[in-house]
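Hello,

Our lab assistant flagged a job as stuck in the queue for most of the afternoon. It eventually completed. Since we weren't sure the result was trustworthy after the delay, we are filing this so someone can double-check. Below is the sequence as submitted and the structure that was eventually returned. Let us know if re-running is recommended.
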Amino acid sequence: MQIGVAIVGCGYWGQNLIRNFWQLETAAVAMVCDEDAACLERTVRCYPTVKATRHFEEILSDTRVDGVAIATPVSTHFQLARRALEAGKHVLVEKPICQTSLEVLELMELAQRRRRVLMVDHTFLYTAAVRRMKQLIASGEIGGLLYYDSVRVNLGLVQSDTNVLWDLGPHDFSIMDHLCDLEPRSIQASAASHLDCPFEDIAYVTVRFQNSLMAHFHLNWLAPVKVRLTLVGGSKKMLVYDDLEPSEKVKVYDRGITVRHDPERRSRMLAGYRHGDMLAPQLDTTEALRLMAQEFISSIGENRTPLTDGVSGYRVVRLLEAAQQSIEQNGREIELAEPVFARSVRTSRLAVSITE
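-- returned structure --
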């Protein structure tokens, strides 16, 4: 049985969603929606059997549509998702899921009351690289986490309705939250705008956790080169994740430092350096967006919580809100209160075996 899907927003990311849902045997792209008639016309030329509309209400009233995928500006996410849930549709929302954590909580409560799936498109959590890193960390092979360092910079694309934090930050915050699986204690952010627009184009963010773990993020629209690099330091091994690397995206370094004190001279500290092998594990080449689309369809069909559920979306928006507050207060460290609820208990994780 195929699950009918409608995609709202036929721009760059919407086209990617249409393509991936179209290629799933378990899904049927029933409708597409966009206010731009020319955009709809181009979409129908590629997918002639799909019904196109400029009116969101037509999707809500169409009984062929089981799930709605929303790929529109973030300012529209909450209203569109709420209306779809109220109409009895399952909902997938592009990142960030909403503009405020209160909006996310309202959608979560509505989805639970209507017994519908609410999912956020944190695509990077479905990449083979992040899945393998999660496996390495969860198995204890890396040891205790010491630091998390991320750089996501390029020349553009400058957004007209949001700053670099809300544009690029959701990717890295979602990866960190997934990999570290710890409660952050505070967040501090500094940002600046160098263009003739009201939005910041460079940001530096530091997250501190209850233990000694620290995470740092560099986000930039004004870099001369494109960099997508993450370093995760563990007490046993270290990880390097280069998303632009064509083949060896994840490298595991058996390297580290051990420190001990000289018992005869208490002030003297002895450091030992371990230089072991580097391993680049083979990774699955399945497109991450395909796995994300399949997870949405599978969670509907199996009546279960998806990997990137409302809790995942809430935790990322909560960090974005606090970082924005820090920026507006000239980089003041913002203490994070205890989350409204604990992490969701998921009976089923990503329905894709990691065999690499």
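-- support follow-up --
The delay was a queue issue, not a problem with the job. The result is valid. The mean pLDDT is 91. The chain has nine helices and 15 strands.
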